[in-house]
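Exercise: predict the fold of this chain.
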Amino acid sequence: MKKETLFIAFSTQKGGMGKTALTVLMASQLHYTKGYHIGIVDCDYPQHSIGEMRKRDTDLVMKDEYFKLQAYRQFSTLGIKAYPIKECTADKAIDMAEELMQTSDKDFDIIFFDLPGTLNSPGVILTLASMDYVFTPVSADRVVLESTLQYATMLNDNLIVPQKGNLKGLYLFWNMVDGREKTPLYKAYEKVIAELRLNMLKTILPDSKRFRREVSDQRKSVFRSTLLPADKTLLKGSNIEELANEICQTIKLENHGNQ
């Protein structure tokens, strides 16, 4: 029986919230660690940040013997190939995903979409309407929160509630949380979010420099990479594992992987 491929995006119109980094971290966690078959459509034109990251990762793995051995063991021992990354514009994203699915010898569990950060880009609204789920990072900064709630409410009221499109659910989650901030602040914000009938995940991601750490020949620990799983010691305290588990539960992802 052919499995259903879920279309998912980490999406927000507020820049600097880490949607691209989260897309890579989640894709790598689910693909390399949990054994799901993942693909990425990078339609954040013109920068194509994830496509460019794959090029940097590949260049480093090819020239660094340590990372080359890691990648070889991953492929030869575990049989896990690198997940595909396709680049296009937002208006071509769904066509690109369909082509990716048709040319793959294995059904995808999830295809992640890295979308532009503005709804004004051609095709963004239609692509969002084609998603199964959207996950939106938000911080307790008032400007960020107001912008994100406006964005989430627009999607909820115009796509999810009237069932215009494929979008089954939108979920906010706290990102870049400073451990020194007081809990009552978040409880007050969560009350507002609940009054707007918006969903909120329980997992909270801390504010940490590791989220910006790519593979480098200056260090041998990996956190954010399109070719290798995150180092277990760096994962500890990042809550990426917890977020991956909660997302899998939320979207009711069946375990078709290697676990």
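Check your answer against the key: The first strand starts at residue 6 and ends at 10.
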